[in-house]
Amino acid sequence: MALDYAVIAAYVLGMIGMGWWGMRRATSKSEYLVAGRRLGFTMYSGTMSAVVLGGASTIGGVGLGYKYGISGAWMVFAIGLGILLLSALFARRIVRLKVYTVSQMLDLRYGGNSSTISGLVMAAYTLMLTVTSTIAYSTIFNVLFGLPKSIGVIIGGSIVVLYSVLGGMWSITLTDIVQFVVKTVGILFLLLPISLATAGGFDGIQQRLNDPAMFDVGNIGASTIITYLLIYVFGLLIGQDIWQRVFTAKSPKVATWGGITSGLYCLVYAVAGAVIGLAGKALYPDIANKDEAFATIVENLLPTGVRGLVLAAALAAMMSTSSGALIACATVASNDIWRRKAKKNDNAASDVHNNRMFTLVIGVVAIAIAVALNDVVAALTVAYNILVGGLLVAIIGGLVWKRGTRLGAMASMAVGSLTAIGFMVFVDVYANEAIYYSLGASFVTYVVVSLATPATDAAVLANWDRRVAGDGSAEEELVNA
User: Transmembrane region positions (predicted)?
Assistant: First the structure.
């Protein structure tokens, strides 16, 4: 496997080199957190695709295809739909706001300080997203070197933390473009056709499996499909890691069409993962754990060198999501939680240093949690349930309903989050009811409390309309109250 090792080593060194190069460009808060808000169409669509298609979408998507066949595409398909809806409906307004976090958007829309609750919920979500992506590194390092989980997590996590700390969003953007190319080649142009051809095409798979359910798009179950759509479509609409990528677009047009292109790419990636898993089921029907299907297919099916590139593609998918979630968590912690309690400092170098330190500390914490945690799916479920159940109604309500108030938003965030947590604790962490009831409770609370409290001050709404229209929204006018 010497050639495989060489490919992986070259990839890792390239990531670190990108981080070092990005450090030279990250000279201000805007450059460090949102790449100066100047990404064009190609870089924007590539980096958006990279951040949303992580280890869960690659290894998890293949695993779902192995277990459920074509129907296993639904999880990643929902992610693609989320990006399409965000880009088509809200991206233009989000770019014009010129903020750094979702919580700052809430403050602009509702007035006052709403970020205590929303910042904590968003920080918890982005931290768990970082952790789940970090855990996934162990799969690749186990296949390559036979390393135990903890060592693989520490190695992979340290690489991501290093380049993220060095150059912030610039480093992450540059590495994401490389990662996007690597996983496109590795997954779509190598693993997909090779696995499908080896299994004899769809006719060969049908003969080997003799199971029509594996070609049924609803095989995974209606309730699971609905849950995927609720969690991932809505989660992609409001996640800080996704919004922070939208903030990097140089124009509303780039955010819209670059995002739509990324969403379409995700739909293709969803089908590809399911087909790879389906072919793997036909070739290796006795894999006990579906999450091991990807590694088994790669290890047994591909020749040396090609195997290294495909494993690098999987590693790329994990690192892109992990780094995006890490910078998002650091941004929320620095700007929404810590900055409001600390003395303001307008020095650009100090701003970059502080955000860099937050990225480092949170990265170390994420690695420590990833070493101790075993259930990736449970962690991801917790993160998305709290995010969607707690914040969706307040955020989307603020974008589409002028009568929504600050008290209504805060009450809906508290009730939705607590309802989701309650169901996960007292019923089951995987219970679909958690997302259904938390969304329902959050929506009712938002409407009732908003109608029962005075409407948002006209001056606040006028300022909001001005910012959404892109008038006078320079970053210097941001109020970090």
Answer: 6-23, 44-66, 72-95, 116-145, 151-173, 180-200, 220-243, 264-284, 309-333, 354-373, 379-401, 413-431, 443-464
